[in-house]
Amino acid sequence: MAKIGIVGAGFSGLTAGNYLAAQGHEVIILEKHDKVGGGAQSWEKAVKPLGLKYIGESIHVLSHLDPGKELRKTLEGAGVDFEKAVGELVRPANFARAVTREGEVVMPNSNVEWEKNLVDKFPQEAKGIHAFFQNMRSINAERYVDTNPGWKKNLLELTATMPNYLSFVNAAAQGLCRPGLAAGFLFTPTWDKVLDKYFSSTELKAHFQLLNGYVGLSSKECASNLMKVALAFYTINGGAQMPKYGSFQKIPEEMVRTLERKGGKVYTHVGIDDLIIKEEKVKTLVVKAEKSVNGHSKGNTYQFDVDEVIWTADPITLVRYAEKHLPSSYAQKIRQLEKSTSLTGFHAIVDSHLEYFKELFDVASLVVAETFADIDDPNKELYLTAPTLHREGLIYDFQGNPVEGKHVLNFYVQDRNRDGWINGRKESGGNKGDYNQEKMNFMREKIKVIDDILGTDLQHRILHMDPLTAATVARYMNNQGEVYGVKSTPGQFVPNNLSKITPLKNVLLASHYTFGAGGVPGALNEGKDAARILIEKLG
Questions:
Q1: Considering only CA atoms, which of 38, 82, 83, 80 is closest in space to residue 257?
Q2: Of residues 464, 417, 423, 461, the one with CA closest to residue 442
Q3: pTM of the predicted protein model
Q4: Are strands 395-397 and 270-278 parallel, antiparallel or unpaired?
Q5: Which of 490, 482, 506, 491 is nearest to 38 (CA)?
Q6: Which site in 101, 195, 204, 443 is 20 to 30 Å from 185, CA atoms measured?
Q7: 78: how many CB neighbours lie within 10 A of its CB?
Q8: What angle in degrees, to the nearest 10, is found between the helix axes of 151-160 and 520-538?
Q9: Cα separation, 343 vs 417, whole angstroms
Q10: HSE (CB half, 13 Å, CA atoms) of 501?
Q11: Per-residue b or e along 105-116, where b marks 16 or more CB atoms closer than 10 Å to that residue's CB
Q12: How distant, in Å, are the alpha carbons of 26, 78, 261 from that of 21?
């Protein structure tokens, strides 16, 4: 059996590790931070003046978690006891709602209901609406060809292992196995052009712009096939879901316990310090302890000999330590990857005032914008989630008892000023000075906009606020501040995204950087696929 080192304990790394350990391989996963979960992790925050703790939840919604659905099968295939890790699920009435000064746009949690609502609201566009949803349903069926046995599955698996310079073969395979997706990508490369094929009403088009913000793209940037997949994934036979009790953090933590029962190990507080490379293979992972914990002293280095490596961290880190062993063209491609936008926003504790707006917040995401046109501008879309209006166990006192009359509110804006925030924090020497003042001013200005459009009074009802910026993301995710890996533009999506295969003979990439889009579904599938490639390689 092989010794397999996995860099990063996010959903990709934990999924790959569990599938490989189940085959008897010796698995170690190395994570720089003190918590597992990667970009999807949640944090417990203590607010001493209020005498409470709350969960700062990064994931507020998933889908396809019902028995027999895609994500449920992937997690259970990794050995996760789903009922134990997640338990009862709740499904908000709507997936997303956008409120502007001009009116509102609603995306129900049922595609059938959504189609009916749109036809009722825009009867003159009925023909285009029916055609659009029929196309969505056929594309959704195409998504599953890689999970069902047959020649299409075999072809897609074969092309998935090919290096980047053979990406034209991948394109042909995608076209043969997923003709709907291929047509959307090859002939309508932006979401604007997709919508123009079906609809004429600007207001109607706004109903389909909501998803752009989830990957920080405008309609002129995004790969249409990606957005179709995202749209289909959340609305066709899926639906937005969340745990009724507690946090999504239970999933990665249960994945760790499952891995350890199989003999695998997860080391936190350790970051890659060097790679020992011989004969175009990584022979040893050298790590440095980031904190004094579990008998390890901060700054001490440790070595792990490996036969195979799955790299789920930012690939720029791989280039940093292995550049002299990589072709210059490969290193340059990674350096030139256009990254997704980052997030700026806050986690806040709000008093019972929020309960008066429960109907408004009965969604997976509430989007606030000045006009319908702004729904397509990631810099102006303000995303809010109020998880405690749907779920229990996210806010409690220091004895662990539930707290009544207070709620968690999450707010985000896709922020393209990533470098400005990161450099500002460095110049201030941390979370202080001008950086801290600028951060607080930014939040207050956005809260006023939200109050003005929604008719709320959040600016006077927030009891505690934990702001976050791109600098926060960069520190906690050990990357350049982006939340979704690479930017999901046509030039960086299938077939042009990073291959799992690297110039190093025993190193695979698996993450949002290879999937070409953010989100837990992509991370889980990439981890599972990387494990499959290694299992076949190792026999």
A1: 80
A2: 417
A3: 0.92
A4: unpaired
A5: 482
A6: 204
A7: 24
A8: 90
A9: 9
A10: 14
A11: bbbbbbbeebbe
A12: 6, 9, 9
Three-class SS of residue 515? helix
Q: List, edge to edge, every strand of the sheet that includes 301-305.
A: 270-278, 281-289, 301-305
Q: In a 3-state reduction of DSSP, which class is residue 430?
A: coil
Question: 């003999």: which residue's tokens?
Answer: 263
Instruction: Convert the pLDDT of each residue in 445-463 to its tens digit.
Output: 999 999 999 999 999 999 9
What backbone torsions phi and psi does residue 118 show, to the nearest 5 degrees? -70, -40
Encoded tokens for 521: 């579904």
Q: What are phi and psi of 408, to 5 degrees?
A: -90, 135
Q: Exposed, middle or buried, 529 (CB in 10 Å: 0-12/13-18/19+)?
A: buried
Phi/psi of residue 242, nearest 5 degrees:
-155, 155
**The amino acid at 468:** L
| Mean pLDDT, rounded, for 355-363 | 92
Cβ contact 96:367 at 8 Å: yes
- Which residue, chain included where needed, has tokens 């579990």? 294
What is the residue type of 409?
Answer: L
| pLDDT single digits (tens) 61-88 | 888 888 988 889 999 999 999 998 999 9
Q: In whole angstroms, give the CA distance from residue 134 to residue 11.
A: 32
SS3 251: helix
User: Which tokens belong to 363?
Assistant: 């969604």
Strands (E), 169-258: 242-243
Separation between Cα atoms, residue 230 and residue 62, nearest integer Å: 12
Distances (CA, A) of 523 to 155, 172, 509: 22, 24, 11
